Amino acid sequence: MLWLVLHLPRLPLEVFPGLPSPSAVVRRERVVVADDAAARAGVVPGLRLAEAWAFLPCLAVQERDVEREQGALTRLACWAGNFTSEICCLPPQTLLLEVAGSLRLFGGAKALFERIVAGCAEQGFVPQASLAPTPLAAQWLAFAGDDQPCLDKGELPYRLGRLPLSGLDLPAQHHARLRSFGARSLADVLRLPRAGLTRRLGGGFVADLARALGDLPDPRPRYVFPECFVEQLELPARIENAMALGFAGNRLLATLCGWLAARGSGISKCIFEFEHERGSRQRPATVLVLGFTAATRSAERISRVFVERLQRFELPAPVERISLRAEAPEALPGRTASLFGERGEGAGGESVAALVERLQARLGNGKVHGLSVVAEHRPENASRRVEPGLLAGEKLPARLLPASAMRHKDPGPRPLWLLRRPQILGEVAGRPQCGGPLRLLAGPERIESGWWDAAEPDAVGDVRRDYFVAISVRAEWLWVFRSRAGWFLHGVFA
After folding, report:
1. Domains detected in the chain
2. Please, is 380 exposed, middle or buried when counting C-beta atoms within 10 Å of its C-beta (0-12, 13-18, 19+)?
3. Which UniProt keywords apply (predicted)?
């Protein structure tokens, strides 16, 4: 096993992105954490608030919000699902990721480590990270700020031995007792007899040493991903331009994709809600729905649709907080990557789905649709508009059939483009006219009947037509028919 630890020492401050600098978070009139500007002025954790203000009168102070910190930690756990589903939350400020099974997928331990740390920073958190074969060793290394990966269990005594006892999360009485022994580093402790340590410090401390070195098992409870995804993000400042919401929205989308990857699922729809500034004239949240032609968990694909929608989205008022909701995940198994590393969205169904989604985002959902063949002999009824999702391989309704399933007996040629309503043509000496006389090349093909819907509004009804393929004086190939009412143009061949 290989454990990657993300320790977030500034999490109490990072959950308040709008706090001006210099700033600090306090609990019971004592400083919990301060930003860099306050720290340079002497504001350190544990300092009384009155003393902090004496050092820095302009210090902005915020009471610690443990519930908000817990929400941020679980949101980060969902985001980490992009890399592994084996995640442990250690409140209030630590996350454990078991990444041994992810090394080959992400190019090795070093590349994976750097990618996770960089991604965590993109989510708005500055971690102290470490990588080790046991979870407790990784925690101790992270607490001490040692970010050099340790991949070999045999290196643990040396790597842990360099750590000062002051950097470990040990009880105060243990620190005092070990100092009385003359121990200043973990190497000094490891040289002491285990039996004597057990008598003086108790079996729990010695068992922790054994777990850190890998001599005892150290099972950890796994984080259980929620059934539905509902996350929100407070903005550091009011935003009035919809495009400016893209950065924060993409943070939430990365978290959503991690949640989907850990669950092996995809989504066909997700919902953004933009909450406006509070006041006497509070507006309801503005809703933005993202729809997809087929279930997906591709961050690039979802983000592309999101940005397209934002480009044509107008906010009725400034936004202070955004939330993202996905309530109906669909099973979406993994897929083997290409041998030569081509992108997954090539010339197949996914590229069609991505194109349809971009068109929907630009033109509107109601203006993009697919066509499907229907088992009907009258041309007007031989096809139906269908949802664009059917283009991505979804199951067709019973009456909608792919063209290969149709059973015509030697049908005549059919044009790709049918007019919405047949256009009446002139006639001279029995010949149809369309910018001049038409020359009939093929036909007639008789199409008749349809009495069953003659009484329905806007139905085609009972027809009796003789269809011909004709060519005009402009070399246009046309599909025309003759009925009792005369000659009509019904379609144009490509």
Report:
1. 3-16+65-213 (3.30.70.270), 235-331 (3.30.1490.100), 369-411 (no CATH), 414-494 (no CATH)
2. middle
3. DNA damage
